[in-house]
Amino acid sequence: MESSKNVSDPRRNNSKGGKGKKTPGKSQSFIEQNQKGDRFIPSRVNSKLDTAWHKINNKPSNSSETTLAEDEYRRKYKDNLDRVMGINENERILAYSSRPSAVEGYQNKTKVLYSSSKKMNMDGKKSRHIPAAAEKVLDAPDLRDDFYLHLLDWGANNLVAVGLDQSVYLWNASSGDITKLLTMENENDYISSIKWTEDGSYLAVGDSTHHVQLWDVAEEKRLRNMRSHTDRVNTMSWSNHILSSGSSDTTIHNHDVRVAEHHTSTLTGHAQVVCGIEWSHDGTHLASGGNDNLVNVYDNRSVTPIHSFTEHQAGVKAVAWCPWQKSVLASGGGSADRHIRLWNTTTGVCNKAVDTKSQVCMLKWSSHYKELLSSHGYSQNQLTLWSYPTMSWIKDLLGHTARVLYLTLSPDGQTACSAGADETLRLWNCFQYDPESSKKKADGMQSGRLLFGGGIR
Fold first, then answer.
1. Whole-angstrom distance, CA of residue 346 vs CA of residue 329
2. Sign of CA dihedral 95, 101, 106, 108
């Protein structure tokens, strides 16, 4: 108790020599010389409010782009939240009006958002399992890294043909056997395109010497060696007995393989390299894409385009006809464009365009689902599944370490085979369908009639 009495209180130290702080008098100013403002109202003279507002509302130019998966997640999350909260698009959440009275049987939808333990399906559709990894990976040494070539095709005989530099190899998807079909004679020559006939009996091979070779695979024998182009043959497509070939000489030639004078017509319409061509499923129209950024559509009775689409901003290699809607054509642009566009070839109108955020190399439609599969280059080198007709993102298939230049589908339409500049072939089970519909689908997958009944001369 005594020790507490010796403790001095500085507030009571009123001696003249004391160093304690005194209570200020009326004449003493409360404002220090260095003080420039009230502590509760800070000065904003040096604040850059305009700059701050700009940074909040504008994305920096050097920021990294979001992926398609992130964009789709945000979109679905917003749509799902609006649906659960009962908010319609473009509707104001807050409005100066009284809240309407609840009708009989009304249920507060917010309770579902916070109380439901079941994971909601944001699309409202029955989802299927799509394996994210490739089922099988095969080495493809010396596969050319060339955007303009077509070096992969899967025939109705279940043989995958791939062009590896000077040679063409056949991989039997049923047994796993590998056969070398041919090798170019000159070491400086190389394979530039390959395409199976509809029934898988014959294989067309385009090369850097401007020739189109026709091979009987069963006999491992070359039947014809056709030359009409003045530069390498980049792409080919069959329509019954007519083989169309697109070349770096900017032209498309039609070959009737039944006759000696095979070159029947020349299609002009491109000013630069022809990158991709494909006949429609009914054989009435031919679509082509070129390095001049054009997509041309030809009628089978004319050598001039009936449509010439100019919306792409880069070379167009990927062209694909929809199997269940014959007037719909899909096309994909290169690195400077990155868009997939859906065209109505009856009206000549672009129905849909989507930015894929990477180079579009190939496009393939599913025959079992209303979906489109695309292959891409930098930066993810992925395959992407899209839902038709909304073109909403479904899933990315990752595995390739370089751009995916070549893409083909199995005869039953369930498996996709991709080939990339990383010199690998990858098989993806991305279109597996319900076993209950297997028989019905199999009936529609029967091999077509023999295309060369009259023989080849």
1. 10
2. positive
State the Cα–Cα distance between residues 314 and 91, nearest whole angstrom. Answer: 39
Nearest to 382 by CA among 342, 428, 314: 428
pTM of the model: 0.74
Tokens 């298939």, located at residue:
397
Query: How far apart are alpha carbons 321 and 324 in whole angstroms?
Result: 9
pLDDT tens across 169-192, in order? 999 999 999 999 999 999 999 999
- Cα distances (angstroms) measured from residue 430 to each of 140, 176, 360, 368, 441: 22, 20, 19, 11, 16
In this structure, the number of other CB atoms found within 10 A of the CB of residue 199 comes to: 16
Distances (CA, A) of 443 to 156, 158, 318, 367, 413: 14, 16, 29, 13, 13
Helix H or strand E segment including 454:
none
387 closest CA partner among 53, 199, 125: 125
3-state per-residue secondary structure call for 284-322? CEEEEEECCCCEEEEECCCCCEEEEECCCCCCEEEEEEC
- pLDDT, tens digit (0-9, with 9 covering 90-100), for 410-424: 999 999 999 999 999
The confidence score (pLDDT) of residue 34 equals 56
Q: Does 102 have pLDDT greater than 90? A: no
Residue pointed to by tokens 């496009």: 363
Residue 239: count other Cβ atoms within 10 Å of its Cβ.
Answer: 19
Let me know if 71 is exposed, middle or buried by CB neighbors in 10 A (0-12, 13-18, 19+). middle
324: tokens are 């269940």
d(CA 246, CA 234): 6
Q: Give yes or no for a contact between 251 and 264, defined as CB atoms under 8 angstroms apart.
A: no
Helix or strand run (H / E) with residue 401: none
Yes or no: say if 217 and 170 are a contact pair by the CB < 8 Å rule. Answer: yes
Task: Say how far residue 431 (Cα) sits from the centre of its chain.
Answer: 16
**Rounded to whole angstroms, how far apart are CA atoms 385 and 132?**
11
Residue with tokens 């299927």, as numbered in its chain: 128
pLDDT reading at 144 higher than 80: yes
Q: Residue 119 has which token pair?
A: 């994971």
Residue 435: cis peptide before it, omega within 30 degrees of 0: no
Q: Which residue has the tokens 């909403």?
A: 392
